[in-house]
Amino acid sequence: EILQLLTSSNPTTCPKEPIPSALFQTIARDLLPFVSVIINNSGYVPSAFKTARVNQLYEPNQSGYKLAHSTEMALIAVTEKFLAAKAAKLSSVLILLDLSAAFDTVNRNILLSVLSRLGVTGSAWRWFQSYLEGQSYQ
After folding, report:
1. Cα(138)–Cα(125) distance, rounded to whole angstroms?
2. What's the mean pLDDT in 72-99?
3. What angle (nearest 5°) sits at the alpha carbon of residue 28, between those of residues 3 and 8?
4. Which one, of 66, 120, 129, lies nearest residue 102 by Cα?
5. In percent, how much of the chain has pLDDT > 70?
6. CB atoms closer than 10 angstroms to residue 103
7. Which of 136, 104, 123 is nearest to 43 (CA)?
8. For the purposes of burial, counting CB atoms within 10 Å of the CB of 115, is it exposed (0-12), middle (13-18) or buried (19 or more)?
């Protein structure tokens, strides 16, 4: 997943980027072991990653906020994926965490407490804590 994130952007370069994106994508596979360790162990999210760019792009299977797409459609899609996994004798896990309102309406301390009670601990919990601190949106 991390490699996909590192290489999925368009190879364009902004003068403010410290590393040209084309070069970064070329060396991403070599950087992957180090980036993975940093992400998995630090429990820290850099400030640059905490600014959301709000847009109106919807995923093809998104059900919320789209005309003629209901909760039922979302449930059908999830159920189909679970049934396909079961037929293929695969395990399935569904984790739902809606962070869309986390910027301005959710009490972050309560959210972190709930995550802790649900078993999210260690670097995963610290990652959420870091992500929720100092957020902004455009």
Report:
1. 26
2. 85
3. 50
4. 129
5. 59
6. 15
7. 123
8. middle
Distance between CA atoms of residues 87 and 83, nearest Å: 6
Residue 32: helix, strand or coil by DSSP? Answer: helix
State the average pLDDT over residues 108-129. 87
Q: Is 52 exposed, middle or buried (0-12, 13-18, 19+ CB in 10 A)?
A: middle
72-77-81-86 Cα dihedral, nearest 10 degrees: 30
The Cα 133–Cα 101 span in angstroms is 14
> Domain residues of the chain, as ranges?
1-42
Output the pLDDT for position 24. Answer: 73
Look at residue 103 and give its three-state secondary structure.
coil
pTM of the model as a whole: 0.34
Angle at 63 between CA 5 and CA 110, to 5 degrees: 70
